[in-house]
Structures are given as C-alpha cells and as structure tokens.
Hints:
- The chain is 42% helix and 25% strand.
- α9 packs across α10 (219-227).
- The protein has helices at 13-27, 38-47, 59-67, 100-109, 119-130, 134-137, 147-155, 168-173, 206-217, 219-227; strands at residues 3-8, 30-35, 54-58, 76-89, 113-116, 141-144, 163-167, 179-184, 192-199.
- The protein is α/β, with parallel strands linked by helices.
- Strands 1, 2, 3, 4, 5, 6, 7, 8 and 9 form a 9-stranded mixed sheet that branches.
Amino acid sequence: MARIRVLSAPAIRQGLEALAEAFAADTGHAVDLDYASGPNIGKRMDTERDVCDVVLAPQGVIEARRDSGRFGRERAIAVGGVEAGVAIRTGAPVPDIASADAVRQALLNAEAVVFNKASSGDFIAAMITGLGVMDDIADRVKRFEDGREAMEFLAKTQGGTALGFGQSTGLKVHEPLGIMVIGPLPKDIGNVTTYMAMRMPEAGDFDAAEALVDFLTNDAGRARFRETGVM
C-alpha cells in the first residue's frame, strides 16, 4: 500500500481530514496531511524538488506554476470555493456587516482588526484599502502568521468591537478558541477563493495519488466539503 503525502491550504482542512480518513479506510493507502498558507505552498513548490504527492491550493497558486511549466500536463480539479468571512469575540455585540458602508463603519469602530499574512489576508488588506479606511485604522490592524494566532488574539480582546477576517471555513474551525463567525462579507466587497487538487509530477505512486484526487473531487467528495462550508 502507498503512503500519500498531501500539502494543503488550511481553509479546507475539515473536509479534507474526513475524506482522507475515508479514503484510507477504503483503499488501505496511508494519507499524511501537511498544511501551509497559499503563498508558502507556492514557495515550497518553487524551491523543493519533492514537495508532496498531492497538493490542494488556491487556484492562483496552481495556475501560476502551470503557466511556468512547473507541472507539465498534470490536471488540476476544483474542490470548491470558500468565502471571505467576518468573526467577533464570542459574546461581543454583533455589528452590522450587511453592506459595504456597514463594514466600513464597523472597521472604523473596531478596537482591533485582525487577520493573517496569507493570500486571504492580502485580500482583506486590499478590501480595507478599497473602502478608504486603511489610513484611519492602520494602528489597529493586527496581522499574524496564521489564522489560529489571529483568532487567539481576537478571542482575548476586551472592548467588544474587534473584528477578525479570514476564509469562512478557517474561521469556523477556530470558534472553540472563543470567537464567533457572523457571516461572509457582502458580495460587492467579498471574495470567493477556489481551491484546486492536483497530483504532483514527482508523486511516489502516481496511481494512488491520482485515486486520492478523484476521491476528493468526485460528487461525494465535493458534497463532504460542502458540509464544512466549502461552496
């Protein structure tokens, strides 16, 4: 039996872990899961010759390297999309985020604005800049290396107005830390990141890696991802 090494973005972690366990039970193949932000996945693929057997990453990360010839003719299949979401400390008053203007006001009122340094965080920074309030709140913006650190900080805020941003599925995973997801951003300022699954050219067992990609992206696999908030 094969041992399949998977490198994935954490936004789809819940569905991936459930499906990897089911795949291992069905096939006898072991599945080792590793996680990194989209930018770090890209860096690892650019600098390491044998990164993993299967990668699950934002579409932009994969397509940029397909265009460069890094992946040859390997196929990449969509797993689904994840919306950018908003979180608050558990028990804090729920702010209005129903419109761009409401989000702008919530940002101006926030004691802290918290998000990560990954590509999803870069989108949030651009969104805030687009709303015209980055200069007003720059001293209250707190960015962290990963989503868990960011949400731990959010959970410890005291004033009840702090906002956390990230991929909605990733935020949901961290609710036990003491945060609550209050919804996606409004569509006119929101974002949906599409995640792709692909067998790497250096996969140790091509057939087993390909079988895992098919398992993750068939109808049943996508349905399991949807149960965890993937669109």
